[in-house]
Amino acid sequence: MADKIIQMQVRNASNTAWDILNPKTKASAVLMNNGKSVEESVATHTTQNITYYVDPTNGNDENEGTENAPFKTIQKAIDSLPKIINHEVRILLEDGIYNENITISGFIGTGELYIRGRNLNKETVIINGKIRVTSNNIRIYIAFFTLKNFTDIGIGATSSINLFTYNLIIDGGMLSDDGSRVGIGVYHSTVQIGECAFRNFVTSSAWTKGAILSSTCGVISTFTCTFKDVDIAFFADYGTIHGAGNFSYDNVNTAYVTRCGGQIWGVNAQ
Amino acid sequence: MKKLLENGVFTGFEAEKIVIDRDNGRVIGYIGNQEIFSFCGVDFSKVNYEVEGGEDTPEVSAQERIAELEQIIADLSELLIENGVI
After folding, report:
1. CB nearest B25 (choices: A233, A264, A270)
2. B31-67 residue pLDDT tens
3. How far is A137 from chain B (nearest CA, A)?
4. pTM, whole model, 2 decimals?
């Protein structure tokens, strides 16, 4: 496929002609794609359920994202979605290794977005990178994959409500004290974390750590997670964590820590 | 302010009073009487916490005080029965 030419133009004051983009004039800016406004070429909201397929081995981001013509990257599938989701959207990940950072941002509506391993096997879908979930108000489910080789925070949720993380393996990759690392960090967001396995979060870094971190105005509900080779499993730092069920600790220094008004309920000590 | 050290490294936690309660797997920091941080489920066989400035002794909890009082009453009752007082 030929490269697309992207142009930025604005309507003039009388709305009769186009001028070149003046960065100070935001309200009337229209993105042009091969002479066609993006408004016309990209849907702003869902009209039906959508399923996209992603395959890191056989996919191609120039494809349509169908089962027979999958995308190569998860980000391409996310970026192909309308921002208003009023239906069920599934992004199904074929087994394989994905080398990408992922951003899920700005989705609103009454629908749901699922991003999960297609074969429901968290061991066979590997994402080397981090996931950022910012400013969403739809229900987002991410499940059935392994997240590893990320820096600082594996899954970071900011200003998002209704993020659900299930059946994940989150590997901090730290078996020695070489910096700070968080598995799932929650800020100004509500997140549920269930049946996730956290591995290799060994650090004595002072300020940012904990396999699960609830920071400023973060609210986490969690159940049935396991922790192996972890310094601190749960850390409530200005945020809250509600636990249900018995958590399993294997070579964990400290089960949970509260600081700065952070609160934790229902989490068992070792 | 006292500083909490983990294996000799400053953890970032500091407080006027820091209690290391090895029997109950806890580390608690206070400013005045206000608890400002708390570690629970600490495995002291794996991690060594120290306090720069000297650690404080654990305060006896209300539950522990009640248990202690109940034991005293039980011992006293046994003594009174043994001596035919009651």
Report:
1. A270
2. 998 899 999 999 999 888 999 999 998 777 778 788 8
3. 32
4. 0.80
